[in-house]
């Protein structure tokens, strides 16, 4: 049986980490995964959703469709799975109109009600979906990584420390808002580098920024050759739905992590794997401690890698995905 994943784009980060990397698990269980980008425009979308899919399971990834499109899709397919890894029922942290959106709320309620199975990226998202639909059809499936793709950071070089931040332009605002922290670090530790893996880059007065355009071919090498991973988030409704991919990637590469104590960060970063500073001074103190202590960086990095292998490994969660697909396939 074919599983058709309707995704914003095949290269979208959520499509890669929450759909594509489970293809081999599905295929081993007799399901064939096909990624299909959502058509653009109402007419093209109508044609896409009118196509009979009664021998297919459709996995709708993240998108909140207008009600007529959602009902058309649901009518045309054998079963519908909805997967989401953001608080899509809110606007993002920096939207000029604030977080609350009636349109998003209505579409989200409709989506989780017509879906046969719901895959939520964290417990906060799952609880929200469960309140609006049937809790028994909601499963928490954390965003995972494949540790085999990541070599371990050695933490053996004795030169200036290299901090690393990876993300999209839309999340760079949180890094820019942490400029006072990073400027203090740059002034206190001359030569310290901030490696930014993105498609746009910040500028600092006292901290050298190493610009690394993102590429799937080079991201793991750029991570494991750094020393400390950082992730800043504002504490708001949108950020509480984030699934912590940055942190997971840092830990998979054997880096200690310093991250805002927001949402899933508190669940991922356990004792001995990193720090969760609550104010500017704590950020500066923890960054200073790790910059000064190469052995501590190595020990925390090893603990973090072990945590990824045990709890956020794609091979550990692949069977869960398969079971939910099987349940959807049994829908009549």
UniProtKB/TrEMBL annotation:
<keyword id="KW-0328">Glycosyltransferase</keyword>
<comment type="similarity">
    <text>Belongs to the glycosyltransferase group 1 family. Glycosyltransferase 4 subfamily.</text>
</comment>
<feature type="domain" description="Glycosyl transferase family 1">
    <location>
        <begin position="243"/>
        <end position="307"/>
    </location>
</feature>
<dbReference type="InterPro" id="IPR001296">
    <property type="entry name" value="Glyco_trans_1"/>
</dbReference>
<keyword id="KW-0808">Transferase</keyword>
<dbReference type="Pfam" id="PF00534">
    <property type="entry name" value="Glycos_transf_1"/>
</dbReference>
<protein>
    <submittedName>
        <fullName>Glycosyl transferases group 1</fullName>
    </submittedName>
</protein>
<dbReference type="GO" id="GO:0016757">
    <property type="term" value="F:glycosyltransferase activity"/>
</dbReference>
């Amino acid at each position: 049986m074919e599983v058709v994943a309707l995704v914003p784009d095949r290269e979208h980060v959520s499509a890669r980490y929450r759909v594509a990397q489970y293809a081999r698990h599905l295929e081993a269980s007799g399901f064939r995964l096909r990624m299909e980008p959502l058509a653009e425009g109402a007419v093209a979308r109508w044609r896409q959703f009118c196509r009979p899919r009664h021998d297919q399971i459709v996995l709708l990834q993240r998108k909140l469709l207008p009600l007529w499109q959602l009902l058309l899709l649901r009518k045309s397919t054998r079963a519908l799975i909805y997967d989401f890894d953001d608080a899509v029922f809110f606007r993002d942290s920096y939207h000029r109109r604030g977080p609350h959106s009636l349109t998003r709320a209505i579409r989200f309620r409709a989506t989780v009600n017509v879906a046969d199975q719901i895959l939520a990226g964290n417990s906060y998202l799952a609880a929200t979906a469960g309140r609006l639909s049937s809790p028994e059809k909601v499963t928490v499936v954390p965003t995972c990584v494949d540790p085999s793709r990541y070599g371990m950071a050695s933490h053996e070089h004795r030169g200036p420390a290299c901090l690393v931040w990876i993300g999209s332009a839309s999340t760079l605002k949180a890094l820019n808002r942490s400029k006072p922290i990073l400027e203090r670090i740059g002034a206190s530790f001359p030569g310290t580098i901030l490696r930014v893996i993105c498609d746009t880059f910040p500028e600092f007065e006292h901290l050298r920024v190493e610009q690394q355009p993102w590429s799937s071919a080079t991201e793991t090498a750029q991570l494991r050759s750094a020393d400390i991973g950082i992730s800043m988030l504002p504490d708001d409704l949108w950020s509480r739905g984030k699934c912590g991919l940055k942190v997971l990637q840092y830990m998979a590469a054997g880096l200690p992590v310093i991250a805002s104590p927001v949402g899933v960060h508190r669940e991922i970063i356990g004792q001995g794997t990193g720090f969760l500073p609550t104010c500017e001074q704590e950020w500066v103190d923890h960054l200073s401690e790790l910059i000064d202590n190469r052995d501590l960086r190595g020990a925390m990095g090893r603990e973090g890698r072990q945590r990824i292998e045990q709890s956020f490994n794609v091979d550990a969660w692949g069977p869960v995905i398969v079971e939910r697909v099987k349940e959807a396939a049994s829908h009549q």
